[in-house]
Amino acid sequence: MTLDNSPIVREGQLLERAIFVGGLGGCGKTMLTAIIGGFDRVEIQKYNYVIENICTLHRLGKVGDDVAFAMIRMQTDLDIYNMMMSRETNFRFSDLSSVFKNPGKWRYFRRLFQAGDDAIVDRVKNERPILHITFHDLLQHSHPLLKALGEKARLLELVRHPLYMIKQWYKNVEQFYDNTFNPREFSIRFLYKQNSLPWFVSGWEEEYLKITNKMDRVIYMMRHHIEESKRCYEALSENEKKQVMIISFENFVKNPWADLEKLEHFLDSKVTKRTLKELKRQNIPRKMLADGINLKVYRKYGWKPSDKRLGEAGELQERRNFAEERASSEGMRVLDAMSANYEKEYFDRKI
Known about the structure:
The protein has 351 residues and is of the alpha/beta class. Helix content is 47%, strand content 10%. The chain has helices at 29-36, 49-59, 65-83, 106-111, 119-127, 142-149, 166-172, 174-177, 205-210, 214-234, 238-241, 249-254, 257-267, 273-281, 296-300, 311-324, 329-346; strands spanning 17-23, 46-47, 130-136, 153-159, 189-192, 195-198, 244-248.
């Protein structure tokens, strides 16, 4: 049986509001999502790879509008429905996205013993919970999210200086670097001239394949993501842009108060004692940008305590030296240009 031209639909929606928090790898999403999870009515962060993959396939022209929009609505409804019963909720103790790392963890234990199923619809209407999804490459997937969810959606993008992300990208690039299968890599790939390529290479395959230097590939991948994110943001309507908020990591960790006030209006929510507790746990406000939490997962990707003797300029230079030892001169020219553009756009002064 086929439906011919009949569109796929989901009429109506259980969801009241959703906040998608995104940014490039190494930008500090796990820090920001923990803080956002402390706002009034905001749920613990979760990942939904089905929605991410649908958005990617839509971007590649493999899924039509009707299917993409209906599936996004259905998946967000399922997320909030299950979350209100602590079903499919992360109780793995060591995960940064688990209830044990959330400032409001006890509500998820209480929900295990509360009425579920039919009772959930009324609870969602009365409590107005805000679904909280961590998203990769958010702005590049903004179009289907905003079209599917309309006014219910809020997109929060965290940006960070390229030099502060370079070490993590360098450690992660192996999963994209060749054709070998990585069972822990779950992003969409496509076949091009017998090469299995990551979805974001679509449109510049030949240039990508010609880059043999590992650090250069990191730099060009990062530049592509930054440029595409900006292009997708500029393509939004003025009303859609009001549903998007961009936060600079450097400005936020040094002085979060202005951004927190904006977030209250953006989410129609409030900072709570849980939010302030999480700020303290994340060592915010900070004197130095790198004064984060000393966690094994952060050390794995190159984090180390800041060196007060170097100052912020010295910390950036140390990261630039790391890249320069591995990149070509042309790659460094591209990286320096990205750094200069970021500083011009987001720094009140050069660090």
